[in-house]
Write a structure and sequence with these properties.
The structure holds two protein chains of two kinds.
Chain A lengths: L23 H12 L15
Chain B lengths: L5 H4 L14 E5 L30 H18 L3 E7 L9 H13 L5 E8 L6 H9 L3 E5 L20 H12 L5 E7 L6 H10 L4 E5 L26 H14 L7 E2 H10 L16 E4 L4 E3 L13 E5 L5 H5 L2 H5 L9 H4 L4 H4 L21 H19 L14
Parallel strand pairs in B: 1-2, 1-8, 2-3, 3-4, 4-5, 5-6, 6-7
Antiparallel strand pairs in B: 8-9, 9-10
The chains are: A mainly alpha, B alpha/beta.
Chain lengths: 50, 409
């Protein structure tokens, strides 16, 4: 169940990529994001392809 | 004659934006499939246009498509493109047509343009010999499976009702032994399946990555497990898909290692960390994909066919039109507008920047078109907030507002 209507304007937390993490999944995400740096524009790909 | 909805077809000024070149070409090798999956948006959906198309792309269509891709690469100075060899089932008559298509594109594009070629298959025809040939040609192979057990794949049967799982499972084992060729698994969510069992069973198949796909649905054909409502951001709402995905996310996040990439989760996490998305399911990045049908028709992504008959059509084909002409089509342009394509409810939503309105296909409502929140709006908000919460606990406290580089939503 989602939030009641009165609570739906709650903003998302403002998160910044940490400089370092011991969390293995987050580390992999950060590595992939770094690999996209310099890629402009980042484009979306078709969902029905891996 | 296809009757398109008002937005974007009647009101979008396609000259008012700068198109982004296509970088992903979905090439229909075969227009038929040896399976008859109960939920298939192509063969069980409202659009029966596939019946009128050739069963297989002809040599002429292949050559012309390759030339058009090369023309597009040259025109925009692209250094890399992706081709997705698709169907139907692209391996329906063996690997030959797939290999020929990939070879034609690679030969046609200028030197210096890298072509990443992937076959997306149901796996039932992926023998050792076929895999040898695909791997030798440098093609990657993706599998469509709904989990790693027979029970998860009960909806995937052939036209005689026989289960696809035994052959598909054998294909998954073959691919696991060839990590260089294994592109990953696409898994359509079935609420009847236990999310953790699906996740664990997929891990056992050792794909490098997977993606969990919401079943194609819209405001006129709402998803199974939810009731019908007019388009909007209705709250509070049950979130069966959001809950299902959140359970999988927790298992993935807490695994203690990256067992496999999960595209949807990684893209949402990236968006929450301020990066743009590479997926059409979330975020606001321009879609850079186009489809070429077996008869050479240039089309939008064929998931649109789940909305209404002819929804993916552009009226263009590779024999008479360039891909640059397709970029000016209202349906294509609408997928590259980012925030400007969103519904008012999404623009005012604190989650809108991340979910990006969800998959465009899921925003459709009969008569009014695609400028609506996703029919999975509540599920997406549930998942995004869940991931944000887990990410916040992992990365530490939120930044203070004065440290924000982007506007606080």
């Amino acid at each position: 169940m989602t939030l009641p209507t009165d609570d739906t304007p709650i903003p998302l937390p403002e998160l910044a990529p940490p400089d370092h993490t011991d969390h293995p999944v987050l580390a992999a995400i950060l590595a992939e994001l770094r690999s996209r740096e310099g890629e402009f524009p980042v484009v979306a790909h078709y969902e029905d392809a891996p | 004659m296809t009757s398109h909805p008002r937005w974007p077809y009647a009101v979008l000024d396609t000259t008012a934006h700068e198109p982004v070149p296509f970088r992903q070409f979905v090439l229909k090798v075969h227009g038929r499939c040896n399976l008859d999956c109960t939920y298939c948006y192509l063969y069980q959906g409202p659009d029966h246009g596939w019946r009128d198309r050739p069963a297989r792309a002809s040599d002429r269509t292949v050559r012309r498509t390759a030339d058009r891709i090369a023309e597009h690469v040259r025109a925009h100075g692209l250094d890399a493109v992706r081709i997705e060899l698709h169907g139907g089932e692209p391996l329906l008559t063996g690997p030959g047509p797939v290999l020929a298509y990939a070879d034609a594109v690679r030969r046609a594009v200028p030197a210096g343009c890298r072509v990443t070629a992937t076959v997306q298959t149901n796996g039932t025809l992926l023998t050792d010999a076929t895999l040898d040939r695909l791997a030798a040609a440098g093609l990657r192979v993706g599998l469509s499976l709904d989990g790693g057990r027979a029970a998860h794949n009960a909806r995937r049967t052939d036209h005689a009702g026989r289960p696809a799982w035994p052959a598909a499972h054998a294909a998954a084992r073959r691919l696991a032994a060839r990590p260089q060729t294994y592109a990953g698994i696409l898994c359509t969510i079935d609420l009847a399946a236990d999310p953790l069992d699906v996740y664990r069973s997929l891990l056992e198949l050792r794909p490098p990555g997977t993606d969990f796909l919401l079943p194609h649905a819209n405001w006129g054909s709402p998803p199974p497990g939810t009731d019908g409502l007019p388009p909007g951001r209705h709250r509070p709402r049950p979130t069966p898909y959001g809950d299902w995905l959140a359970a999988v996310f927790d298992a993935w996040w807490d695994e203690g290692r990256l067992g496999m990439r999960v595209r949807l989760f990684q893209e949402i996490a990236g968006l929450l960390l301020g990066a743009p998305s590479r997926a059409e399911a979330v975020g606001l990045s321009p879609l850079a994909a186009v489809v070429v049908e077996t008869d050479g028709s240039i089309e939008q992504v064929d998931a649109l066919r789940s909305a209404y008959p002819g929804a993916s059509e552009t009226g263009l084909d590779v024999f008479r039109h360039s891909f640059d002409e397709a970029l000016r089509h209202p349906g294509v342009a609408a997928r590259q507008l980012g925030e400007r394509a969103l519904a008012e409810e999404c623009l005012n939503c604190p989650v809108g920047r991340v979910c990006g309105g969800g998959n465009y296909v899921h925003r459709y409502a009969p008569g009014t078109g695609f400028r609506h929140p996703s029919v999975y709006c509540a599920d997406l908000e549930k998942l995004v907030r869940h991931i944000a919460h887990r990410l916040q606990r992992t990365t530490g406290p939120s930044r203070r507002p004065e440290q924000c580089s982007t506007r606080c939503l």
